[in-house]
Amino acid sequence: MNKRIQKYLKIFIAIIFIFIFIQIIKKIILTSGKSSEVYFEVGIEKLFFKEITEIIKFEGIAEGDPQIKVYPTVAGKFEKNIVNEGDSVRKDTYLLYINRDIVGFEYNLAPVKSPIDGIVVKLYFFDKGDTVLPQMPVAEIANVNKIKVVIYAGENDLIKIKKGHKAYISLIYDNNTNLKGSVFSVTPFVNKDTLAGTVVVKADNGDLKIKPGQSVKTEILTEKRRTFLIPDKAILTDENGTFVFINENNIAKKIYIKTGYIENDLIEIKGDLKEGMEIVTEGSFKLYENAKIKILN
């Protein structure tokens, strides 16, 4: 009897061990299955068209409008200046004298006159006896009540700029000193050597806020247009180009794009995009194609 009990007891214990072993194996299988289900927490933004006025920025030098270099009509030697830099002059005011000083002839000193009303912004000669030729400027006169800035724009910017576009001219070191103006002219051609074209921006300067020769920033406001703008942190690059991740049923999908206009920390994107797409804007750096994602509230 004892032997039979011992036999049944051994069988019972074996069954318990088998049951426990099976449960352990199930748990291992379930645990390993769960570990393969990796989800990445991300933040998203829905893609919507936004209306923007693109601002194209340049730096340049302010000039009077007009600002004219004055050339003599005769050759000779510099005698003396009648005016100083900064002086206001009227049209036909004498600026300086040239001594024609040709052996065997006697000449009166030849005056050089201002061609316009304005301010003397530059004199080119100061030493008596310096040689002066008709092809050499002797002075520069500017109308300071109006300002112009000559800009050299690359072809990508040139095609966006149109005559009449609003513009602002401000001092580089003082944003509060600015003038409201407009695009006066845009060249239809691109220089083959510089791959740039000339744009002239003009503005009234009645308060003399800006002086000729000062370094200025020029901002040109182009026509309004609709486009997609997303945070720059959402944009990634790899060996194939620039891309973003979109959320497609909680799966990360890669879409290659081209970038454009930049406005603070927002960047224009172009490509196979549609309104309503969910762009991954937080946590995109850790994703890969077809990664499973969980959207943060």
Apparent shape: rod-shaped
Count of individual domains: 3
Give the C-alpha Rg: 38 Å
Largest sheet features? 6 strands, antiparallel, barrel
Quaternary state of the chains: single chain
The H-level CATH homologous superfamily of the largest domain, spelled out, is Efflux pump adaptor protein, beta barrel domain
Provide the descriptors you would attach to this structure in a database record.
297 residues, mainly beta, conserved putative lor/sdh protein from methanococcus maripaludis s2 fold, Elongation Factor Tu (Ef-tu), domain 3, OB fold (Dihydrolipoamide Acetyltransferase, E2P), 3 domains, six-stranded antiparallel barrel, four-stranded antiparallel beta sheet, 2 helices, 21 strands, 13% helix, rod-shaped
Strands, helices and their partners?
Blueprint: H1 2-35, E1 39-46, E2 49-64, E3 67-70, E4 76-81, E5 88-89, E6 94-99, E7 110-113, E8 118-123, E9 131-132, E10 139-142, E11 146-154, H2 155-158, E12 166-171, E13 174-186, E14 196-204, E15 215-231, E16 236-238, E17 241-247, E18 252-263, E19 266-271, E20 278-282, E21 292-295
Parallel strand pairs: 1-21
Antiparallel strand pairs: 1-20, 2-11, 2-15, 3-10, 4-6, 4-9, 5-8, 6-7, 8-10, 11-14, 12-13, 12-15, 13-14, 15-19, 16-17, 17-18, 18-19
Describe, in plain words, how this protein is organized in 3D:
The chain has 297 residues and is mainly beta. The chain has three domains: 39-52 and 226-295, conserved putative lor/sdh protein from methanococcus maripaludis s2 fold (Beta Barrel), CATH 2.40.420; 56-63 and 144-224, Efflux pump adaptor protein, beta barrel domain (Elongation Factor Tu (Ef-tu), domain 3, Beta Barrel); 66-142, RNA polymerase II/Efflux pump adaptor protein, barrel-sandwich hybrid domain (OB fold (Dihydrolipoamide Acetyltransferase, E2P), Beta Barrel). It has helices spanning 2-35, 155-158, and strands at residues 39-46, 49-64, 67-70, 76-81, 88-89, 94-99, 110-113, 118-123, 131-132, 139-142, 146-154, 166-171, 174-186, 196-204, 215-231, 236-238, 241-247, 252-263, 266-271, 278-282, 292-295. The strands form four sheets. Strands 2-11-14-13-12-15 form a six-stranded antiparallel β-barrel. Strands 3-10-8-5 form a four-stranded antiparallel β-sheet, with no helix packed on it. A four-stranded antiparallel β-sheet has the order 7-6-4-9, with no helix packed on it. A hairpin with a 2-residue loop joins strand 16 and strand 17. The longest helix is centred in the N-terminal third of the chain and has 34 residues, at 2-35.
